[in-house]
């Protein structure tokens, strides 16, 4: 759903900085733990900056930047929209050639790679890191140094049909692992569902559905002081065994089509539960038709021994070290973190704010379902910012497919994924 609530954007004034830059070294791609970016001047922004942004965000960003230009007369923000499928190669080519934009939207899993290439400017002290959801802020950090800000966030929660849950004997969502398994089974036996819950049967990105359970049981994807991958931990093994049980018990479809049919299956009741992000609210309501929003609800990921956790994703905004207008670049990024600006961006894009206080805006606070996502974000976690993350996690996704579809022993699969990750290394 697109909100049209009008929000007045306050004029941006940059705060003075009191911390100067720490020296950079050649180790770890020029990154030293605890770096702080050089001070940014006070006063209005001036000059021109170039900005790259991907997908729908790239298409819509100019609607927001006009407010920054109005607040800073004479400033020009030049936005270039880039397709997601071409973005990574475009960035790496630009970094190699030394022709990066001043500012850019960057996927969270690219941060380690770009920071280790010494392409990113460390975050100045003016930006209050505590203003962001902790898990989102962690996505900006590489070797203890923050680069940029978390711009928008998303997390995953449980979607479930409340009307069918009542037929299955449930008035509320499950709160623990056993409760989820039991309720999903009851959706089949008592509410007529073909499958109790839709879970991804391995393949690309399946780790994002498995890890919320693992994190909820205290798992850590790193070991040796954060210097190595940790795919075969006892916590991840326990979560993977639990995840596998939905497929071996016939509660989830191990032969689900490669192209998801989540919305129609949810609307028809064929699969009345699934785990996904906030974008699915408008998607299922569109397919379900009038009144469907009253037939479902969302709930936090059922808790393990360490509580409820989930995956935090989204995109960050960074400043490249090659910028010719660093002050204005950082003033723009700082402005993007203003709670009022974050709330207005939500009305334009429906991207969820990374700044916690922005969730108090009426555009978000009035939506009870959205509040569940906000609560989940308080404990949501991100994968490690290793430059090789996307390469290493492919092995985990591959093994998860064997575990869900062919019944591979989870311990064997995770050991294989660990061996592959060890051979790849962290890239740091």
From TrEMBL:
Compositionally biased tracts (Polar residues):
415-428
Gene that produces this protein: lacE
Q: Where is this region: Disordered?
A: 406-428
First and last residue of the signal peptide: 1-21
In Swiss-Prot or TrEMBL terms, this protein is called Sugar ABC transporter substrate-binding protein
Q: Which UniProt keywords apply?
A: Signal, Transport
Q: Which organism is it from?
A: Terrabacter tumescens
Q: Which family does it belong to?
A: Belongs to the bacterial solute-binding protein 1 family.
What SUPFAM superfamilies does this protein's entry cite? Periplasmic binding protein-like II
**InterPro entries recorded:** SBP (IPR006059)
Show the CDD domains listed in the entry. Answer: PBP2_MalE
């Amino acid at each position: 759903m697109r909100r049209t609530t009008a929000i007045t954007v306050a004029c941006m004034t940059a705060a003075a900085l009191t911390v100067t830059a720490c020296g950079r070294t050649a180790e770890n791609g020029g990154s030293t733990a605890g770096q702080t970016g050089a001070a940014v001047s006070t006063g209005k922004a001036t000059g021109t900056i170039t900005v790259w942004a991907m997908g729908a965000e790239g298409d819509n960003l100019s609607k927001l930047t006009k407010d920054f230009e109005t607040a800073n007369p004479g400033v020009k923000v030049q936005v270039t929209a880039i397709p997601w499928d071409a973005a990574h190669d475009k960035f790496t080519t630009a970094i190699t050639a030394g022709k990066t934009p001043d500012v850019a939207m960057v996927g969270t899993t690219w941060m380690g790679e770009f920071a280790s290439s010494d392409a990113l400017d460390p975050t100045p002290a003016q930006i209050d890191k505590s203003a962001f959801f902790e898990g989102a802020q962690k996505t900006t950090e590489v070797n203890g140094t923050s680069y940029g800000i978390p711009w928008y966030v998303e997390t995953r929660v449980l979607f479930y049909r409340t009307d069918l849950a009542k037929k299955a004997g449930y008035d509320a969502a499950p709160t623990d692992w056993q409760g989820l398994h039991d309720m999903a089974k009851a959706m089949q036996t008592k509410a007529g569902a073909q499958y109790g819950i839709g879970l991804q049967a391995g393949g690309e990105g399946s780790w994002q559905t498995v890890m919320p359970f693992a994190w909820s049981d205290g798992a850590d994807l790193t070991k040796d002081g954060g210097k190595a991958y940790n795919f075969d931990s006892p916590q991840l093994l326990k979560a993977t065994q639990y995840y596998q049980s939905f497929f071996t018990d016939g509660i989830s479809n191990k032969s689900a089509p490669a192209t998801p049919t989540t919305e129609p299956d949810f609307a028809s009741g064929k699969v009345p539960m699934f785990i996904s992000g906030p974008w699915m609210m408008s998607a299922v309501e569109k397919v379900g038709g009038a009144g469907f929003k009253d037939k479902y609800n969302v709930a936090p990921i059922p808790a393990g021994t360490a509580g409820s956790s989930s995956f935090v994703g989204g995109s960050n905004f960074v400043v490249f070290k090659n910028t010719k207008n660093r002050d204005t670049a950082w003033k723009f990024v700082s402005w993007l973190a203003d709670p009022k600006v974050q709330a207005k961006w939500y009305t334009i894009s429906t991207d969820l704010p990374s700044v916690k206080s922005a969730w108090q805006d009426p555009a978000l606070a009035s939506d009870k379902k959205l509040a569940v996502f906000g609560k989940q974000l308080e404990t949501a976690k991100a994968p490690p910012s290793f430059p090789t993350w996307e390469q290493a996690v492919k092995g985990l996704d591959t093994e998860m497919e064997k575990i869900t579809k062919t019944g591979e022993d989870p311990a064997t699969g995770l050991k294989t994924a660990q061996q592959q990750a060890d051979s790849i290394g962290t890239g740091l």
